[in-house]
Amino acid sequence: MKYRNLGKYGLKLSEIALGSWVTDLSGGDAERVARETVNAAFDAGVNFFDCADAYSGGAAERFLGKVLGEHARNEYIVSSKVFFPMGRGANDWGLSRKHITEQLDKTLKNMRLDYLDLYFCHRFDPTTPIEETVETLSDLVKAGKILYYGVSEWSPVQITEAIHLAKENGLRPIAVVQPQYNMADRYIEDEIMGICEKYGVGITPFSPLAQGLLTGKYRKGQPLPAGSRATWQADRQINKMLTEENLEKVEKLLRVAEEAGVPLSVLALAWILRSKQISSVITGASKPTQLAANVAASGTELSRDVLDEIEKILDYHPFVRRVG
Questions:
Q1: What is the mean pLDDT of residues 88-103?
Q2: What is the 3-state secondary structure (H, E, C) of the chain?
Q3: Is there a domain that residue 14 lies in?
Q4: Structural domain includes residue 59
Q5: Is the pTM here over 0.90, yes or no?
Q6: Of residues 9, 55, 115, 199, which has the active-site annotation?
Q7: Number of domains in the chain
Q8: Residue at 228 is within a domain
Q9: What CATH number is attached to the domain comprising 60?
Q10: pLDDT for 265-324, tens place per residue?
Q11: Residue 63's domain spans which residues?
Q12: Is 187 a catalytic residue?
C-alpha cells in the first residue's frame, strides 16, 4: 500500500480507503463478513475508513467503531459525515451549529472515539449561512473533536465561498472534499480540481467504480447478474447508468484492461490515482475478496499509451463557455 498527503496537510492516507455505504449488517453472518473485510483492509495497509451518521441509521458507525476499537487509535484514520435527517425534529438535519454539534457527539459515542480525523458536510444546506457552518466546524477543530473538516457534494462556488470566509475570519479552512468521481462522471475536472490545487485541499472521491459499472460485471446484451446491486438497490442509481453508450465503453475498457494485464476495477481505480491531487480513493467492499481486488490498484501506474487510449474511449468534453 502506498500513502499520500491530504492535500497540503501532513496527514497521510492510504491510496485506497474503505467506505461503509454498502456495508451489510443485516444478520450475524453478514456482520461477520463485514468484520473480516475491515480486518483484511488493515492487513493490506488501508488506514482510512469512511462512514456517515446516515448509513444504516447509525448502525454503520457503531459497527465500525466496534471493529476499529480492536486496533490502536494511531493506526487508523476515520471519518464521518453530517447533514441528512437523523430524527423527525425541525433541527434534526442540516448544517446548523445545533445539528452539527449534537450529531458529532452522537457519532463520537457511536464510534467510541474522543475525536474524528475527518468530518464532512454530506451535502450543502441552503437554509443555513455558510458562515455559521464554517465557524462551527472551525470551533470543533479548536476543541479537538475533529482534526480536519471538509465537504462532500458542494458546488465550486460553495466551496470557494467557504474557503474565503474561513480565510477572512481567521477560521480553520476546508482541508478536504469528497465528491463523486469516476470514468463515467468527471465533473470535478471542470473546476473543483483546480480550486483544490490552488488552495491545497485534498480530494477523496467516492463511487470510483460507478456503482459497479466499472467492474465489468454488467455487460452489453447480457442479463443482470443475480444478486448484483442493479437487482436490489432502492434508488436504482446503477440502473440509470446501464445505458447502451456506457456499456459500449465498458466493452472497450475491458479490452484495454486485458492488454494491461489488470482487472477493469484496478484499471478504473489506477486511472483516478493518476492525478496527484487525489489523496485517497474511497472504495466499497462487501467481502474480503473485493477488498483485495481494490487494494491491488495502489501503486499501479498506467502507461501514457494506456491513458491516451482510455481518453479516446471516454471521449470527455469539459464544460467550457467563452465569455466576452
A1: 97
A2: CCEEECCCCCCEEECEEEECCCCCCCCHHHHHHHHHHHHHHHHCCCCEEECCCCHHHHHHHHHHHHHHCCCCHHHCEEEEEECCCCCCCCCCCCCCHHHHHHHHHHHHHHHCCCCEEEEEEEECCCCCCHHHHHHHHHHHHHCCCEEEEEEEECCHHHHHHHHHHHHHCCCCCCCEECCECECCECHHHCCHHHHHHHHCCEECCECCCHHHHHHCCCCCCCCCCCCCHHHCCCCCHHHHHCCHHHHHHHHHHHHHHHHHCCCHHHHHHHHHCCCCCECCEEECCCCHHHHHHHHCCCCCCCCHHHHHHHHHHHCCCCCCCCCC
A3: yes
A4: yes
A5: yes
A6: 55
A7: 1
A8: no
A9: 3.20.20.100
A10: 999 999 999 999 999 999 998 889 989 989 999 999 999 999 999 999 999 988 777 776
A11: 3-210+264-300
A12: no
